[in-house]
Amino acid sequence: MIILLIGKNGQLSSVLNKELSIMHKVFAVDRYRLCLSKITSLEKFIDQAKPDLIINTAAYNQVDQAEIEKDLAFEINALLPKFLSSKSQSLGIPIIHISTNYIFDGSKNSPYEEEDQANPLSVYGKTKWLGEEFVRNNPKHFILRTSWLFSSHSPSFLLTMLKLAHEKHTINIVSDQWGSPTSTKTLVGAIQEILNRLLYKKSPEIYGTYHVACNGKTNWYDYSIKILSVLESMGIKTLLKTDQVIPISHVDYYQKACRPNYSVLATMKYKNIFQSKLPDWDLEVERTILESSIRCFNSKLN
Ligand SMILES: NC(=O)c1ccc[n+]([C@@H]2O[C@H](COP(=O)([O-])OP(=O)(O)OC[C@H]3O[C@@H](n4cnc5c(N)ncnc54)[C@H](OP(=O)(O)O)[C@@H]3O)[C@@H](O)[C@H]2O)c1
User: Which of 57, 60, 118, 178 could, after both became Cys, cross-link 7 (CB 3.0–4.6 A)?
Assistant: First the structure.
């Protein structure tokens, strides 16, 4: 398959690029080709690459900064997907687009289903929701909504905590916002499932919107405790101890953008249609911290 991967050096796109290149011809496009002023050149690039599939991982992802850089967030999160959707439709090819749990307002107290009403609270959420709506214009779309992404190599809450564990004696963490941390490995696995379906079982009814997140839910405070406990169980000494992590309410932690207090995603649709399992978030955190320590150890050796 020839795949046009929108995004190259991001948390998800860098892993996808590496994994998909084993089996497919991947053209990964970085941010310098993605601004709308260069859309003609992007279109030429797509025409030359002749992709069988477009995967859009690009996003203006800085949730608080998006409240200030509204136009840029709109361009990357809504107008770029609009162009990619219309381009893929005119080429008659499918598009896989990544979206977010932040399209929901968090007023529900049970996991959000794919059909639940979107009501984003932030510029990031609103522009991502608009992006989804544009992508749906191509009937051959897969929209994968995910949450609280982490990996061993890119900025995320997990890596921030690993760093703060060695720098801080005490820290306040929000304990009343709930979600499901999801490893990039899990999302990459789901994308590979879709690719397999596209390659071997051409069933059009599988197109649509899916929630892909790790099993289970947590809040930021319990998540931080889990990270510190894993470090402790691995014998890694930290300045920050679990009893020095102070749980606080989100109302006492100022952030420019409003986030949903509850944004756990229901993943049964994906599991049923793709006959696939998803891992537990805490096991993925353990695996990722181990991976990150091995990487750190190896880099010290070299
Ligand atoms: N991170 C999360 O916690 C989270 C949670 C839910 C959903 N998601 C969604 O998951 C997807 C992947 O997220 P991620 O964590 O991999 O994001 P990321 O690490 O921030 O990477 C974002 C990607 O978008 C591109 N990009 C960023 N700013 C850009 C700009 N101003 N102009 C053009 N391109 C720009 C980057 O291009 P380069 O390759 O040139 O760097 C990069 O490939 C996104 O759709 C995001 O909305 C993320």
Answer: 57
> Cα(104) to centroid of ligand 1, in Å?
19
Q: How many C-beta neighbours within 10 Å does residue 293 have?
A: 16
CB of 133 within 6 A of ligand 1: the answer is no
Amino acid, single-letter form, for residue 236: I
Cβ(85) to ligand 1 under 6 A? no
- Show the DSSP H helices in 2-79 as ranges: 11-20, 39-49, 70-74
Q: Is 207 a catalytic residue?
A: no
Architecture per CATH, 2-155+181-215+259-281: 3-Layer(aba) Sandwich (3.40)
Q: Which of 124, 207, 262, 270 is catalytic?
A: 124
> Chain centroid to CA 114: how far?
16
Closest alpha carbon to 186 in 142, 149, 219: 149
Tell me the domain boundaries of the chain.
Answer: 2-155+181-215+259-281
Answer whether 46 contacts ligand 1 (Cβ < 6 A): no
* pLDDT bracket for residue 222 (50, 70, 90): very high
